[in-house]
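Hi there. Long-time user, first ticket. I'm pasting a complex I've been working with (about 1048 residues overall). I'd like to know whether the download I got is complete or cut off, because the file seemed smaller than I expected. Thanks.
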Amino acid sequence: MTMQAELESPVAFHITGKRSGAELAPVTERGLRPALFARYRDLTALRYDFPLVLLKDARDGECVAALSSLVDKALEDASGTAGERLRAHALRLEREIRVMTAAGATGSLGALLEQAARRVAPAADASLTESLASLRGKLKADGEVLDCDVRMPVRLIEHAWAHAQRERTDSVRSDIERLIVKLSDILLADTARSEGARTPASLKATVGSIHGDLFDFEAMSRLLKRAVPAGALAPGRRSRIERTLAELRAQRFYAVAGGTEPYAFRFGDCASALLAFRDRVAGMARFARAVTIARLEIDGGYSEERHDALFAQLGENRLDLRDLALFPDYLVCINTRALSATEQGELMEILASGLPMKILVQSDDILEPPLVQTGHLAFGTRSRQLASMAIGLNDVFVLQSASSNLPRAREQIRSAMQYRGPALLSVFSGANPHADGVRPYLNAAAAMESRAFPAFGYDPSAGKDWASRFTLADNPQPERDWPLHVLTHEDAEHQSVAEETAFTLLDYVACDGRFADHYAKVPRAAWNETLAPASECLDAGARGLPDKLPSVPMVDADDRLQKVIVDERLLREAVRCRDLWRSLQELGGIHNSHVANALARAAAEAKLAAPQAEPVAAVVAPAAASPAAAPAVAAPEPAQERPADEPYIETPRCSTCNECTQINNRMFAYDENQQARIVDATAGTFRQLVEAAEACQVAIIHPGKPKNPDEPGLEELLQRAEAFR
Amino acid sequence: MNMLATECLLELCEERHELEDYQSGVPRWCSGCGDNAILAAVQRLCRDEGLRPEKTVFVSGIGCSSRFPHYMRTYGFHGIHGRALPVAEGVRLARPDLNVFVNTGDGDCCSIGAAHWIHAIRYNMNMTVFLHDNQIYGLTKMQASPTSPRGTKSNTTPRGSTLEALQPLSVTLGVQNVSFVAQAVDWIPENLYEIVKAAYHHKGFSFVRIVQRCPEWLPKVWDPWLHDPQRITILRHERGLQPSAALSQVYRNQLEHDPSNLNRARELASDTDQIPVGILYRDPSVPCYEDLRQNGKLHTPELIRSGLEAEFDKFTVWPQAAG
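Hi, the file is complete. Here it is re-exported in full:
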């Protein structure tokens, strides 16, 4: 191999992906990982969001909390020497629990605290035991402890779902129980009033055996039968109430006291959830109808002539989408591994038809090869496409997040569970067996960091527009293409060097052993200015032979900085990943092209208009003033001229005192608000008009001029009427 | 529980009542009596709010005003003197589904019923109370009542009454748990109706004192206010009432008053020169007694039976235990 070829072998590798020559080493050595991971080799030494505690019996508010925040809250008021000791012990125990759960331990917080105490001090330690008791008292909460592993997303979502269901169904359940009691009361009252209840035998039964001989039940029965009030329940109403009661008691949607065993609402695949839903639809319709009838009956508002026809028109099995709010939501947990084409079809059917189902789709591997191999790598096609498609359906709640971010997204999870409609939760667990030695938490966080699995939320109930519905806020530095971090290392002269480094898809993929062939380690001797940060090369996009090679900083098992170059095929995939992220950014209102265009247009228009600024302002000014002026013109509406000789009443001021209507109820009458008006001025005499005006308590009758010039005593009447002109 | 689709449909066939549906009989009040105006406003409220007659009850004591339930085609309870409020409280507890109204007079409420009045304010049960205050016992033909102005000549005070009149608004505003106090005059129908409506919509003990003319026994006593709109102060506020333009043309004396200001309300209530008309005080956060008593338990036959059994067991002699 010539010298020239050797020099250019990094370029050749970049273009072909084939390593030639000895100076490019494969990245197969164990422990090689992105340089930004260097600090996170041992997660158990860090206090972070995990492990999580699924709070038991959380009545309202949060049902999930980070162990560290629970401990912090418990230590809030710890002070003095005793407080410091408690703090030291508590933090030690917390760390031990973190180590234990990382090793796969499970259990409740209380049990794990006990175990941790035994591990920390195998021999009895009085002060630790005391701290443990005090800590348990202050924690005030218990529940299952979860580390960020492959099981976590399902357990967390199940817990949040069950919590939301409990919150929601409690009120419905007690409402149903109330309806059952009230309906039974109607039947009981009717039975108690019936002839049968007043026979001597049944009266005797109500008194009991001890005092039975003291009464003459024959006489009591005779007396009471005479006092039976008329109007027993009509047979139609009784049978309707009985039918409704039977329907309410037979329902299987809620566990009510004395009711039937309720249905299951938790499913492992869409097909069986859909099947169960279809099976239950008729029952749901009957139940919704029974609830309505029960409420009407209890309210005394069921009218057979109107409601019978209405319910007949509705039909037996009709169920409106709004009625679904009455029923518990379904939870379906699936893994992308098991997501066949049929299953996917059913999933989309559930989402598209707005069924009340919460679907968790968990991916464990987002770098899996695509189903259709076309030459490019196409990462995350299956896991990412679902969430994007679901957003397109417009009324589906969508949450995509890596498992590491789930504790931060708990408010969104809560909203998803409360949302009245379908919700899709797409979660990447990070538990990828190919990510050599990288803990699921770190892997998941890196997937989000590198935009390989961005987090977003789409909440249709949050508003009408994208700005209020869609959010990218959970992503690190969402306004950038790639998040920037400061990488501090020591150079050859043992000087500290800090440089800003972007964390790109190339850094993320470097953790995965399957893609080792796309990377080549460049020996320190060959480091030169052609090795550029990957983010720069991603922006360059030049054709022809590259003058810069994308390099990724990595560290080996001894934390020594290495530079690794990437082949062009993987670089292309990173460009695709960035473009997908940019389009998400646009949806989230970041660097939105429509906004940019509109701003540019506005700026151009303003520039054009600038020289004529003054004349335009002059033209605009009167126009702007006119809306304010308009009411001023309109306000003094010309008072409606009344003919001075017509009698009238200021009806709105009438206080309904009956004075005028008693003088002449054909001349004066009340309107629909029980206030007087003159209905027929000719139905009486001018004298009556004047007398009414005088009698009126609030003096609102105006007699006008007399119609009949021959009426006797007119002159005197006109004088009296003068006061009411 | 949310509104079901079927329930939305049911609204389509809701019954609609006319004012006449709430009228019953011809009032036996004297012509010109202010009670008629109150009756018209209340009937209008029932119609406009679509109150179902079988879900509405008017409770009264004794007096001219207490004949009110007879003229409403709803449930009614013409009670005994001074006891309208306790009866209404019983109705409220036993039948929480009913709209409860109380009509009481100045004698009925402020004299013989004063003790019940004070405690009813403190209980703050959800009901609407109209105090028809004509300052005289009219039904028994003119005796002075606690609200008669000093110097009122009547059959019981032939040389004029000696005491200052009691101020029903000041008393009400001084009691713990007061939650709604308003004042209206019978001769401004629009304002009367708006106040009656606001009182109905307040959840709690809504107390409306209505200044009412008695043309038979005290014919001239309100004339200075009746004939001079300037002596009426219309209270207005964005959280209170907003008088219409037509009303404002006649009653120009208007005052911005925040109904949450209790001290200011007390000042206004003690003004005897002007009549403040509108909502003096409103605090929707005061809890209702019936809600405080709610323990959320469903009274199932089993619960009632076990409760009774437990009570009876206290008085049972157990032969085995005794032996």
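A couple of notes from our side: The interface with chain A takes residues 1-10, 13, 18-19, 27, 31-34, 36-37, 39-40, 43-44, 52, 54-55, 97, 186-190, 213, 215, 226-227, 246, 250, 296, 298-301 of chain B (CB under 8 Å). The longest helix of chain B spans residues 35-49.
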